[in-house]
Amino acid sequence: ENRERLSVCSKLCYAVGGAPYQITGCALGFFLQIYLLDVAQLDPFYASIILFVGRAWDAITDPMVGFFISKTSWTRFGRLMPWIIFSTPFAVISYFLIWFVPDISRGQVMWYLVFYCIFQTLVTCFHVPYSALTMFISREQSERDSATAYRMTVEVLGTVLGTAIQGQIVGQVVIPCIESPLFIGKTNSSVAMEELNMTHDTGSLTDTRNAYMIAAGVIGGLYILCAVILSVGVREKRESSELQSDEPVSFFQGLKLVMNHGAYIKLIAGFLFTSLAFMLLEGNFALFCTYTLGFRNEFQNILLAIMLSATLTIPLWQWFLTRFGKKTAVYVGISSAIPFLIMVAVLDSNLIITYIVAVAAGISVAAAFLLPWSMLPDVIDDFKLQHPDSHGHEAIFFSFYVFFTKFTSGVSLGISTLSLDFAGYQTRGCSQPSEVNFTLKMLVSAVPVGLILLGLLLFKLYPIDEEKRRKNKKALQDLR
Predict the structure, then answer these.
(1) pLDDT by residue (tens digit) across 4-17?
(2) Tell me: the pLDDT tens digits for 431-447?
(3) Among 381, 147, 144, 385, residue whose Cα is nearest residue 241
(4) Which residue in 318, 9, 320, 1 sits closest to 147, CA to CA?
């Protein structure tokens, strides 16, 4: 028994491996849209294509990589660890190139599209085997649960770290902007003013681009460090995941069974809409703070307030769901963002109110982050009771939830950026037309509120309440 116990050092080394995915994901989620529009100076239409295709491709690669890993032979390093080790250097290079502005007049769109998709593929080659590694570090369920708790803590800290590194480094540089032609025309010497603006603007833009590359370099260095700590500190054990007598069912048979399970479909349908609401908020919040609220030099601190609030309130929601039940936690946790989302759109621009809204949004983000991963195991238990002779489908439940979430996030980002194009978004403008400001208000307030309400309505159909969860638990114990 002592031999099966994992040391605190092993658990920490395992947990550190979850940081790269969260750090890079948070930096891309909050900053890629405003980077493509205002730093790389892409047309909003092409930016929407990059964001949609990149996220959609990311969704597709999850089941693909999972399938290839299942066909991988064991090596002296294990079956999963080689994927993590060999994907890391190429992932870091491609991540850095996403934040590099190539000196080419044509082909910029393809540059960002190709390297964004390559990075998403490589980070999937890291994260999918890392997620599966939980089953290969110990035979003891309690030890795996303990290691997972360490991992969740580090992953949440990773989101804060990604926001802080990217935001604070980029925030040190004043992002350049160009006054609208109407403003320049009112000056006594419009030509001189325009030349002065453009000269100063070029220098400032270079500084901004350098800041994004420095942030990418720092995050890339952390990515490598975490991968080294994981590969050195964790030993993959072949015998840990071996099942005694279960005959594996084919992937497509398992997928058919899972997709016909009503509780799973209702759960992911509800979370798809609520996740979509928070992804729209994440993707457009930097633009909303910069242009609609006018906090061009404060938005990185506001983002940090959201993530710190989310990190600190995850233990609160963990206590709440054990005390009052998971469905109650969904309704209270996710709906608590609604009044604050309405407030930030209706009230006049005010920095203090914006920070209050950011903290409140972070509390709901924590609930949205924690609850899906807490409720999916209940669905799997329910599935096992209905299909006692069918085993080994856990990966399908988790991977297809991730697939649907990522795909819808790609659709949401693509559509939201495209809607800014239709509204007349001005690349690197010091201000935006009223139509753009109205669209941004819709994207961070009205649309997320509508999606949250729709998602909560779908949760009414979710059949597993606390009473049924206790019955399922007892029935599973009796089966064992």
Answers:
(1) 677 888 889 999 99
(2) 888 899 999 999 999 99
(3) 144
(4) 9
Q: What is the dihedral of CA 278, 281, 283, 287, to 10 degrees?
A: -170
Tokens, residue 9: 């050092």
Give the pLDDT of residue 234: 86
Query: Distance between CA 339 and CA 360 in Å, rounded?
Result: 9
Which is nearest to 264 in space by CA: 394, 454, 128, 134? 394
Report pTM: 0.77
Distance CA 363, CA 317 (A): 9
- Greatest Cα pair distance, the chain, in angstroms, is 86
Query: Residue written as tokens 């991977």?
Result: 399
Tokens standing for residue 226 = 């975490």
Q: How many CB atoms lie within 10 A of CB 214?
A: 16
Q: Is the pLDDT confidence value at 135 over 90? A: no
Q: Where are the alpha helices (DSSP H) in 234-298?
A: 251-259, 262-287
- CB-CB contact of 380 with 397 (8 Å): yes
| 226: Cβ contacts below 8 Å, ≥ 6 apart | 16, 17, 19, 20
**223/272: higher pLDDT:** 223
- Residue where the block lists tokens 């201000």: 431
Rg (CA), the chain: 23
Amino acid identity of residue 190, one-letter, is S
Spatial separation of the C-alpha atoms in residues 234 and 360, rounded to whole Å: 38
Amino acid at 306: I
438 versus 295: the higher-pLDDT residue is 438
- Give SS3 for 307: helix
Hey, what amino acid is at 25?
G
What are 316's two structure tokens?
A: 């609160």
* pLDDT band with cut points at 50, 70 and 90 for residue 210: very high
Contact status, residue 149 vs residue 12, Cβ threshold 8 Å:
no
Phi–psi pair at 137, nearest 5 degrees: -100, -20
Residue in 124, 156, 104 with CA at minimum distance from that of residue 58: 124
Alpha helices in 325-446 (DSSP H): 326-335, 338-346, 351-386, 394-423, 434-441
The two three-digit tokens of residue 225, written as one number = 């460090």
Q: Using DSSP, how many helices (H) and how many strands (E) does the chain show?
A: 18, 0
Distance of CA 406 to the CA centre of its chain: 8
Read off φ and ψ for residue 429, nearest 5 degrees: -70, 145
Tokens representing 467 are 């009473």
Q: Is residue 238 within 8 Å of 136, Cβ to Cβ?
A: yes
